[in-house]
Specification:
This protein has about 230 residues and is mainly β. The protein contains 1 helix and 14 strands; from the N terminus they run E-E-E-E-E-E-H-E-E-E-E-E-E-E-E.
Length: about 230
């Protein structure tokens, strides 16, 4: 697109445009889904949490930009090294950077998690470089106050599942897992081994070799484990 530019703005609100537009740009995204086997249902897909988005740029910078006739900017810096220094400074700062592609709706904010540059093919007239911006999701620890007042125990209403008694394991129980994960309750698809991992039981397949399906505390699926691999918290 004529006149399109790739502009980067640092944490101090200073902006510059890359001298050459990359051939392509893709914003990565997705969810951490997993497939598990459930008795009488077969395989089911468990949708996980959204993955962190990222964007990668691969392009070149002329060693002497003002002598190049194929630039995307009208007033480039005199030295290509100036662009590399600015990009390297953003990378080392570990602070968020804003990428805006003019004449499009692309506006991406993240930290520069990767930056590499050099030369290739014996060409001393231009630098090649790769940079990657990774989304930074805000998070902070929250202090939870505990109440000293004793609460009256409530009797579970008919039709609602009850939590397993202390020391016993049931659906919804918080457990510590030490054992190998499997894709199916019959032992199919052996995978990673959990070690002292705090998990939650989401499904129970009675009589199966690996009867407990465990998830992270936030609900992300992990897999099926044996009875001996879990211990009630």
């Amino acid at each position: 697109m004529a006149g399109m530019q790739f502009k980067l703005t640092d944490s101090k609100n200073k902006t510059f445009a890359l001298p050459l537009n990359p051939e392509e740009i893709l914003i990565g995204g997705g969810t951490e889904d997993s497939t598990v086997s459930v008795i009488k249902l077969g395989q089911i897909n468990l949708t996980g949490d959204e993955k962190i988005k990222s964007i990668e740029i691969k392009s070149t910078i002329p060693v002497k930009p003002k002598e190049a006739h194929y630039l995307s900017v009208s007033k480039p810096y005199a030295k290509g090294q100036t662009y590399l220094d600015k990009l390297n400074k953003m990378y080392k700062s570990k602070k968020q950077v804003r990428l805006v592609v003019t004449k499009t709706k692309i506006s991406f904010k993240g930290t520069m998690s990767e930056f590499q540059y050099g030369m290739t093919g014996g060409n001393s007239n231009e630098y090649i470089y790769t940079l990657k911006l990774t989304e930074k999701k805000p998070h902070k620890a929250k202090k939870v106050k505990t109440s000293k007042k004793k609460k009256k125990s409530k009797v579970a209403k008919k039709g609602k599942s009850r939590s397993a008694p202390p020391g016993k394991v049931g659906r919804g129980s918080k457990v510590v897992v030490n054992g190998r994960l499997h894709a199916g309750s019959n032992g199919s698809g052996p995978g990673m081994t959990e070690r002292n991992a705090t998990r939650k039981i989401s499904l129970i397949a009675k009589g199966a070799k690996y009867p407990y399906h465990v998830t992270t505390l936030s609900g992300g699926a992990r897999g099926w484990v044996s009875k001996s691999a879990v211990k009630a918290v």
